[in-house]
Amino acid sequence: MENFLQNPPRYTFLPTPLPSISSSASAKNSSWLTDSATQDSLAVIDACLYQLFDVPRAKGIFDRLRRDTPGKILDVRMYNAFLEAYVNMATSKAADNREFWIECAWELFATMEAGQEKIELSAGTYSIMLKAWLRFGPDSPDHIPDTGAVRPTDILTSILSRDIPVENVVADRVFETSEEAAEVIKLLSKAAAELGHTEVITQLGQTEAIGAHYDDILHDVPEVMPVMRVKKKEPSEASTEDEEQEPEYEVPFNLSNLRRHLSRVCFARRVLPEDVAARQKLLEDTVYETAMDRLKHESDMFEQLGLDTGHLRQPDLRRWMWDWHTKLQDRLNEEIQNIKLIEDKKEDRLQLSPYLSLVKPERLSLITIFEIMRLQGSGGVSEGMKTTRALIAVGKAVENEYKAQICKKNNIDLPTIGRVGNNGYFSNLGYNSLLERRIVAARHMSDGEAWTAAWTQATRAKIGGILVECLMDVAKVTRSATHKVTNEVLTEVQPAFHHTYEHSRGQKLGVIRLNPVVSERLSNDNVRDTIHPRHLPMLVKPKPWLGLKKGGYMFSEVSAMRFKESVEQQSYLNHASELGNVELVYAGLDVLGSTPWQISRKVFDVVLKVWNSGEKLGKLPPAVFSDPEPVLPEGADIKTRTTYIHRMKGWTQAKANNHSDRCSVNYKIEIARTFLGDTIYFPHNVDFRGRAYPIPPHLNHIGNDLSRGLLIFAESKPLGERGLRWLQIHLANLYGYDKANFDERVQFVQDHLDDIFDSATKPLEGRQWWTHADDPWQCLGTCMELHAALTSENPTEYQSCLPVHQDGTCNGLQHYAALGGDSRGAQQVNLSAGERPSDVYTYVGNMAEEIIKRDIANGEKYAAMLQGKITRKIVKQTVMTTVYGVTFIGAREQIERQLKLTKQFEEEEVWGASAYLAKVVLSCIGDLFTGAKDIQLWLTLCARLISKAIPGDRIAEALAEYRARKNKKSKSRGRKKKPEQPHEFLRKEQMTSVVWTTPLGLPIVQPYRKPNRKQIVTSMQTVYISDPNSPSEVNTMKQASAFPPNFIHSLDATHMMLTALECRTQGLTFAAVHDSYWTHACDIDEMSGIIRDTFIALHSSDVLKKLYDEFKERYRNYKIPLASIHSGVLAKALKQAGARITVTPEQAKSLQSFSNLVDVSDTGDSSIQENADSADLKALLVDLAEEREAAKLTQESNNSEEHPEEEAEEEDEFEEDDWESPRAKAARLRKANEDLQSIELLGKFVNLVDLLPPLPKKGDFKVEAIKASQYFFS
């Protein structure tokens, strides 16, 4: 591992995208993204080909794309999809015109075979054409002559020339029956005989034997006699005699047997156990049917019992959903037919019917209902959701269901991952073995998959708009209320959902709101029928990650990385995967996903009792919000009313939060109940920084205390003496007694054994000691585990399955201290050895108390209010996130939440108190961690420079385009537009994201670009969505402020992955929540050693130096316009960081504004590039000088007209339009100066790598010292 990390990481390079204003942007950006128009065309093709919906239209689009945009659709699976569609059209839908379609198939095959369009043929290509020969060749009863068909001998020759195994051709998914595949074997055998390829005949014979006689896993169980069939005789063998002969029998060739065998051969691993795999398949395959059947069954039962009347039954979520479903599927049937009729009349209109026809209306109905119910309370909207998010989510769910149908149809047999070999993960042999196995597996999957295309956001929004609008039209509920005067029960039918608008941060926001009774039912009723399998754990080990979208669930398509509207990041990961640079990332995800879990029945029983009681206990939200509603006193003055409004707003928000928490807990409990007694797995993926997350969102070990308390390892191990000690330390940590030394924590548990036993045996009837813990549900589970161990015959031999944690101490600061060699910081975060654990949060809290005492003497109101009330919990989150770049606003909000939880302050005073305390805490941290601040500043400056850089080969092209735009605008007649200034043109060229590579080879691309929204009209409302396929210029400030925290997150993600891989190598069970690592109690000592070894190996590899070297390599030919860095603040920061610009004496004369950054070279070396020889630049400078002179003359003329000397001063008249505030005047002058400087500096660029500031000096702390620190992770 140490040697692996010492080597430079495997870099992934892609060109920087061009701005959309560039005339060549579309062509050059296509090297890594598909523009939205092309993507829409591909998605329409996909929808039209599905079930032969509209193949002629698909063919027209396909031919146009091949003609107009060659090279954009180089996917052999897409070509195969057309070959297959043409053959199927000739077979079924267009049999009366089959000559045309078969001719199209052979013509396209000939084009592919000739290599004219650079398509690499696959086994599926030949399978389709052999199928065409079987159906329409000379020996077929439906023979079609003169279609350009290629003979089987030529097909076989081509197959062999491309080194494609013939058994893969026979086993391809194209063949729907075993009989067809058997016929192809005969066809190829005959062709091989003609060509004299005896080895192919042998190979085909073995293939047929494998299909007929499959080596079952149950080889030692007596075989069941197979069904035999009469063997067909060849015509030459037919008897001429009349007597009857005894028929010969044979085992029929079975195509599925062959496919399973080939899968096993490809991976040399054992297939999944059939029973559990079948349950997982059923879970994913029949989710909508199962939910529909259950809803229908309950509705029928109530009708049979005579309870199906509004007076006799209370509203129930499931019965409402069934009612909506029955009405919605009828409405959708009608709506889709109407859309088809309209589209047939208007051919130029955007076609939506192909998309709506991909999934049956009954499934569309359930998808829409489930997604809308799932999104309730999301996006900060209580009892509702944002319209844009809802429409896109519903459209995406329909797309996912279609992809899942295709995946099920493919039926690819893919076994689970195997154990790591003797060479480990980090040796060259081990790494290459991972790469080879993944390439083989990925090719196997790709060959077996049908082609599909991704939908654009606009398409998703439009499809979602139709479905959601139909749901809102048909979904009704009946509400009942008692009249306050007459006590009469009144009922009314109301919409279940309604669309409205609300204002948020000055913007008008469309929202979909739930009827209050629906929202109430959602927090109380059974919600298992609203959960899609992609939101659930798996019953089998997840599929190994073989590529960006190949892994995880069996049928539900998920991505290995969570993207934030960044096609750039997706392209980098795809390219890195193709280059074999991310094998260890995929392997790490496989390790995390293969950890088996179970639901703790003991803890679940207690949770269920508390939940059903509706009480507030163990952080479970109560069924009825218990805080009293604020009351407005009679005769209240304005100040009292203001206070009341403020408190009422807080109370309303708290009530909404309680309801939202109830809904969340309801999901968790239902999922836990469903999987009681099962072994479950959590497939993982990573965010764009490389941090791993479980994909199921509702119940997982990364969730809150309840989720973690419900989960235990499925495998148990004997505690041993050390394990018993660690179990007790773990209990003390969960209770909150985690800042004492280990012996004191063990003694704490010994002192409370009576409380622990009481909690374990009488969790609700006893003293409830566990409820006072920081993490009550985990504490209860640990109490039960410790009680079971201590009451067993031999506690050290007790089989424990409870995960025990090792948590980092403010892990971000630990990484900063190691990077900078900061001895003082290292001591505060337990990198240095100490007798007791250091607590940086308490230390900062004490520093804040000292400042508060000083401010009280100065009469500070909030200092007096906060004195003596600063706890480590109040400042913890702010201290933790400061090194991740938290702003003052973020820090204030964090502290505000904690102050509200203490309930020691009036609602109206919390904001002011949190603002004051945030300022105090941030100042304390800055004084304490100076080493971290220096590195943070260096990272920020690097990001600011990178985000202002332009590729060197783009400069001349950009100058030419800028001049062309100026000339075009000057010639145009029409409305006058403000001329584009040079600094504006340069700003639009800022397209460079900060990209770096983690030590594991994962390329990280910061996705922060300025919003480039497009207006999409849906049937519900106009929505504005970002178009990720049309990149805009980067957000320089966001790129800079986010880089330090993202870089540190990528380091802690790398540390976690390294630890996961090493634990798998050592045979340890492993799970992680970012910087909290879990294993069995008996293995804690071994895992602790691994944690330290991986951290030392990571930081001994000179991480910052490697980052600096990568920047110099990645941005070697990038230039920064001097006009972009002439601002005083940036120039001053660069000077303080040690950055210098080398120039010649002549250049120094024209760069007076950069005098504090300039080093004059006597040797003639220079970092400055001047495009003095550029004709475009010379012409531009002349044009700009003329413009400036003309503007100056115009301004002077206006001034003389507005202020003639003879005009008398009139004191009683004042024109408001003529007045200019000092601030506006200063801004105008500043902008004029900026325009002038940008013109003067136009054409002058500095090399980015020359301007990068030197690395901060490293301190004297040696990372190897953590070996002696027992509290580094504890």
TrEMBL record:
- The protein's name in its UniProt record: DNA-directed RNA polymerase
According to UniProt, the reaction catalysed is: RNA(n) + a ribonucleoside 5'-triphosphate = RNA(n+1) + diphosphate
Q: Which keywords appear in this protein's UniProt record, sorted alphabetically?
A: DNA-directed RNA polymerase, Nucleotidyltransferase, Transcription, Transferase
Per the record, the similarity remark reads:
Belongs to the phage and mitochondrial RNA polymerase family.
Which lineage?
Eukaryota, Fungi, Dikarya, Basidiomycota, Agaricomycotina
- Keyword Cytoplasm listed? The answer is no
> What Gene3D superfamilies does this protein map onto?
1.10.287.280, 5' to 3' exonuclease, C-terminal subdomain, DNA-directed RNA polymerase, N-terminal domain, Tetratricopeptide repeat domain
Q: Which residues form the DNA-directed RNA polymerase N-terminal domain?
A: 278-594
